[in-house]
Amino acid sequence: MSADARPTSVIRQQGNRLRDEPSLYLRQHAHNPVEWFPWGVEALAEAAARDRPIFLSIGYSSCHWCHVMEKEAFDDDAIADFLNRHFICIKVDREERPDLDAVYMDAVQALTGHGGWPMSAFLTPAGRPFHGGTYFPPAQFSQLLGQVAQLWRERPQDLREQADKVAAHVAAVPEWAVAAHEGPDDRWLGAAADRAAENFDAEHGGFRQRQKFPTPIKWRFLVQRWRQTGDSGLREMLNTTLEAMAGRGLRDHLGGGFHRYTVDPAWTVPHFEKMLYDNAQLASLYLEAGEALDRPDFTAVARDTLAFLCREMRDPAGGLFASFDADSGGHEGSYYVWSPEGITAVTGPADGAAVCALLGVTPAGNFENSGSSVLSRRLNSGDADEALFTRHRPALLAARALRTPPDLDRKVVTGWNGLAIAALARGSVACGDPAFAEAAATAADFLLTRHLRDDGTLWRASSDGRTAGEGIVDDYACLADGLLELFLATGGVRWLAAARALIDTARRRFAHPDGGWYLTAEGDEAPLGRTIELFDSVVPSGNAVMLQALLKLAALTGETEFADEAAATLAARAGLLERGGLEVAGWLQAAALTLTPPFTVVVAGDEGSPDTDALASEAGRVRPVQVLVVRVPADGAGADLAAIAPALGGKSARAGRPTAYACRGRTCDAPVQEASALRAQLGG
């Protein structure tokens, strides 16, 4: 093929086009002998000019199998030389470009029936996919490269026709997902909960799967459903699952936080990545479940998770980092597992056996026949066990810190930070810890200063101060929702103003004519056309979060246009809610808010007054109906708040006593000054 291909030895020494990229994941491949391009005009133009197929590899820095394929294939001189001579090779960080990841993953799943990372796709020079897969062992990968190169030489038109069919499939939306209806129906929520019960793993908790993912968006919907119905079966499912996730190997019992998933159905051995989006959502789940189910131990798990985020994953400037790697010094899990000898060496022989029993460390072990164990710890194990753990935890952590730690990807992702801001804001209220509100505020400041442009649009991510990627609808929605939660936690008017501005920008730039919002903004790059992401994945869909943010904004401002838009979108996508089940749990949560609109309770009174606190505490009690609590000074909301949220204005303390106003939509009950009267207004 090309005579001007650089020798692989030269590429190793000089680096390829990834060496100056902000993404840690891309820079990790900068000295592969593959002539990698980042996604962009240069790479696509090169493919068109040379009429070469594109080999597209998408992954992320904490992905274990991405590292494996790099070592086995992309660092192999023979494989790299073949790639360089026959393909234009493009590497993408899926966390910077979730839009590309979404469409090409849909294509790979359509072609192969499965997906995952590293994602490997073969494209025409125009960027249309005709073949793909995930991880390939080196021999299989070499054989595949030869077959694709031969087909491109001999039958390029066949591959182009195949690519056109795949692109059309990716762009299509199932007819049932656009079926309209008058509006949400509570039966759809009940049907989703019933299907969850049918798929429940009664032995281990979670859903019946060979591998166990925490899927917090699904369990938050089920918490909400339990609050509405009081169904004892749901309560049992929730308790069993949340105890298992927090007590077994999914959770890092020493350092805090949760791993990404477990490779077994009993939640024992995790895939050791730690993702910001998982930990933010799980903290919110355990906060909500702790309150709803009256489980202080669940609230303690949330507090510990939020403390981990603040301690281990926070940029000094305020943003929260993306992830910890699965590998430690090239070995997955080595940072986290323990042998009985290792435990005893730290705790001493007097307590060693007891600590091993407490943390599930045995001579046989449970990790890859190594004689080492992933730690577990039963919740509510008793005061003596709690004291034993508390006494030895610092020393065990100090000993672990001497090991080779997993790499930390210091990328700051806008949408994931929005999820974390929401969790921290909720945690500051539920745990009574102002440090969490402070952390949420510094993260919000970071994003509004560094990721928000002057025209109101967002960058997707930044690394070491360098921004990358256009914000997708998830970024606008999740950040706006986090800012709304921060406003509720702190009363800071600027957070409400910023949330409203982001929502208005998203409504204008992402609107879909059939209801909902495109993944990418109008005018942004979309190689297979603009698509709409309807289903939740490891994070709630941007559409679902937008709906919930609109409904909260409507409740706070009293402006019905926000609620009307949410209701119209839900009606337009009614088929999705009727048939999607827990795969659209975020949409179902929004539907529940339209079926049973939230109360907004304005508590007007002096800060620190016991009577003010009593009214706010009563308003914040867990109820079947969601309640948004806003505290304002005794003389009422200031002019800046009233201008942004007219419904919050004109409500002040009466006769010198703190006063509460409970409102739904444009209707408010009579102002009250006793917690018992407010309780009656809110339904007991």
Largest sheet: 5 strands, mixed
Mean pLDDT: 95
Rg of Cα set: 26 Å
**β-strand amount:** 5-15%
Q: Give the oligomeric state.
A: single chain
Terminal CA distance reads 77 Å
Please mark out the parts with pLDDT under 50 across 5 or more consecutive residues, or reply none: none
Structure description:
This protein has 27 helices and 19 strands. The protein is of the alpha+beta class and 684 residues long. 50% of the residues lie in helices and 10% in strands. The mean pLDDT is 95. Strands 1-3-2-4-5 form a 5-stranded mixed β-sheet, sandwiched between helices. It is globular.
Q: SSE layout and pairings?
A:
Blueprint: H1 8-14, H2 24-27, E1 36-38, H3 41-50, E2 54-59, H4 64-74, H5 77-86, E3 88-93, H6 98-112, E4 119-123, E5 129-133, H7 138-154, H8 156-171, H9 186-198, H10 216-229, H11 232-247, E6 261-262, E7 270-271, E8 274-275, H12 276-292, H13 296-312, E9 323-324, E10 327-328, E11 331-332, H14 340-347, H15 349-359, H16 383-401, E12 408-409, E13 412-413, H17 414-430, H18 434-450, E14 459-463, E15 466-470, H19 473-490, H20 493-510, H21 542-557, H22 560-572, H23 574-580, H24 585-595, E16 599-604, H25 610-619, E17 627-632, H26 639-644, E18 659-664, E19 667-668, H27 675-681
Parallel strand pairs: 1-3, 2-3, 16-17
Antiparallel strand pairs: 2-4, 4-5, 6-7, 8-9, 9-12, 10-11, 13-14, 14-15, 16-18, 18-19
Helix pairs in contact: 5-7, 6-8, 9-23, 9-24, 10-11, 10-12, 10-24, 12-13, 12-17, 13-17, 14-15, 15-16, 17-18, 17-19, 18-19, 19-20, 19-21, 21-22, 21-24, 22-24, 25-27
